[in-house]
Structures are given as structure tokens and as C-alpha cells.
Amino acid sequence: MLRSQTFLAILIGLLVTTWSAASAESWTPDHDGNGFNNSIERAIDLGTLNTAGVNIREQLGKVPWGFDSRDFYKFALPFSFNDWELSVHLDENPSTTMWLEIYDQSGTRSIYASRGAADEDFKLPLGGGIYYIEVKTDAGTAANRNLTYTLTLRPRQVPFVERGGTACRGAPSFGSFSGPAKVIEGSFDERRQPSFYAFYVPYGFSLTGSMLGPAPSSKYAVSVINPLDGAQIAFRNSTLREEGLLLDPGFYCLKIESVGMAGLGNYRGQFVALNAGLVPGRDRNRAQKLADMELGNLTNNGRYGLVSRYIHYKNRGEIPNVSSVLEPAHEYVVRDWVGLEAPEQFYLFDLSEARRLELRLYNLTAAARAFVEDAAGTLLASTTVEGTSLRDDLLAPQALKVTLPAGRKYYVRIEYSSRRDPGTPFGLWLRTLSP
Ligand SMILES: [Ca+2]
Ligand SMILES: [Ca+2]
Fold this sequence. Notes:
The protein is mainly beta. It has 3 domains: about 1-160, Jelly Rolls (Sandwich), CATH 2.60.120; about 175-275, Jelly Rolls (Sandwich); about 285-435, Jelly Rolls. The protein has 2 helices and 29 strands. It has helices at about 1-15, 140, and strands at about 45-50, 55-65, 65-70, 70-75, 85-95, 100-105, 110-115, 120-125, 130-135, 145-160, 175, 180-190, 195-200, 205-210, 220-225, 230-235, 245, 250-260, 265-275, 290, 330-340, 345-350, 355-360, 370-375, 380, 385, 400-405, 410-415, 425-435. A hairpin with a 2-residue loop joins β2 (about 55-65) and β3. It is rod-shaped, with a radius of gyration of 34 Å. The relative contact order is 0.10. The model is unreliable at about 1-25 (pLDDT under 50).
């Protein structure tokens, strides 16, 4: 007799484990004696909640099969770049007879316990994941009564706070982008304006990143804008997981835009800039060869390819033997950075015979100056301002001309003199001619 009753209870239990948003009478023949839905392990699985939510009508206390003191349910919130706010409501009849507890996916850590005076009603911020909720009473509170309840769970997507700028100029700055990965998040609405974030990097770097969430990459286009020329440098593909963008040191904007309807809503991206390239020497002994750091006249920032910014370093892992002797009439171009962290930088060169040297220093956003010196540190020439700047964000270019004898090592020294900004990018153009 007992055996057939248990069998019947299990059979009915199997028939009522389907739930829908519609509030149906679906009494589960569970009680403390049979253990059904009375533990985390045997929780009724509600599956992944959508924004319509669920209503569950159930009972506790004195039930036709005995006494039931607890019902467990398992539910999931989608993993995505959305955080959730879960509205929980327990309609109790009679009131003040049941209460709730929510657990994390381990089932052992209580996240929230609610024991209100009347119906339980609260909102809870939750990330994507698996959770358990327990509806409970006890014998004293139930007082031999049948208790019925409707449990309503309804998640709402919480939009991230959008902090990006609407244009490169004036966009909020992350400061230096080197160091640990930076997480950028916000929310695109129907107006779908791109979002801009400013940053700078003090050395040549490789920028990599990824938009987080389940395969969201096609929803976003991410590019870097060089404020010096307005060039928009797109990541090679939308996954952003390819090799990083090789870029000159300097100030930049990161532009994130949504593509298509799927790109509306929250976004979250993670970016990191890794130093990639030669670091100029902070003293004469550590000076890099100017010829080593040459970019080539016509190379546009962001169009360096995959291996290196420098024209002589085109095979991965291969260090070319570049002479420090400058070729006559060749135009050398270096784009670099000088700032508070290393206010002096040195570049080395040799001359095979006496030369007239022309040098220009340009694209400065803060005060710096260039000097030509010999190995003893004797000053041979210094730049002076050449004309005026036509842009309010750049200082006037500087230039020098000097005739140098052969047979000595020379250094270009860049000195940062601003105390205000973290540093400045600069362009260095240099050419030698027969005197
Ligand atoms: Ca029950
Ligand atoms: Ca139960």
C-alpha cells in the first residue's frame, strides 16, 4: 500500500514539472516525507528565465499528502553583457506564513533571505548564472493550515551607465593604456551614437581587446582614432582577437559603435596595450640607433602590418644589423614620445663624412626641444621654433640646421620641459646633405 502511494506520488510529480509564464494550478504532491523538491539537489528546474518571467502556484504547510515545509526551485539568468535586476514577489495565502531564501549556484551560499511581515517583495541585482530559491515555512507558523502561494520571478536587464563621449575631443580619459587590461562598458540606445574614450600610450604599442559576452563581436565595430590627423584605424576584424594594432606612441580615442539591432543594449569590452617596439634610451649609454627606429617616410600610423612599426624589422624574431651611419639625403622619420616618466631621450647616429644636418621636431602637444650633441655631451645645436602652429592643440614645429664633422658619434637628445601633461608625442624628421 505504502509502496503504491509513493509510486503514484512520483508519477504525478513527473507530470507537473513543466512550468510556464501562465499561472496554472500545478500542485506538486510533495511533502517532507518524500523529499521531492525539498533540497537543492531535487529543486524543480525552471530553466533560463526570460524577461516575461514565471509565476508558480504551489502550496506548503498541511498538504493532502502530509506536511510540506520547503520548496526549492532552480533558475538561470542568461550570461551576457547584461546584468539583471530580479523582481521577486511571493503572494502568500494566508499572509505572513512563508518566506524566501536565494542561494548561489553552489547551493550552499545564501545570497539573500527575505522574511517580511506580509508578502515577500524585493528586487535583487544579479549577474548571469544559476541560482536557487527556497520558499519555506515551519510547523509553528503554518499552524496546521494549508498555505498557498504564487511565486513571481521577473528579470529586467539593467542598462550599464554610458560614460563614453560623443566625440573624440572631450571624451573621458583612461589615462595611460599600458598596464592592466581596461574594461569599458556602456549601453547603446536607439539613437545609436558611437561612444568615445580617450587614452594615451607612452611607447610604441600593440592594442588588443575583445568585446565580452556570447559571440557579440559582430555587433560592434571598434576603431582607434589618431587625433593628430583624424585617421580612423579599424581593428582588422570584429572579433578583435587577432594580433593587436601596432600604433605610434601618443594620444588616441577608442571608438565603439554598434552595428545592427543586435548591437543595441549593453556592451562591455576589455582592452590592453602592450609595449611593442624599441624604447629610446634615457641616457647616452642606452641610446637606440636613430636608423633602427626609422619608420619610413610614407608609413601611416596603424598601417604597419603585423610585425613591427620599424622599416628594418620586418621578420619576426630577427634583429637586423642596421648601421648607425646615416645615408646622405635619406629622410629619416621617427615618431615617439617623451614625458615626465623619462624626460630625456637619446638617439644615436654616425656620419661617414662631414655633413650638413637638418632636423625638424613637430606634432608636439606639450613643450619639448631637440638638441644635437656629441658623445661628451657637448651641445652642438638646438631647435628653435619655426613659424606658428595652425592648430590650437599643437605647438609650433621646431627646426635646426648644423654642419657636423665626420668621425664622431652624435646624439639627438629630446628634452621634455612641460610639467603639466604626462608627456607629448613627437615626430622627428632628419636629413643629412653634403656641406
Ligand atoms: Ca509544496
Ligand atoms: Ca516541498
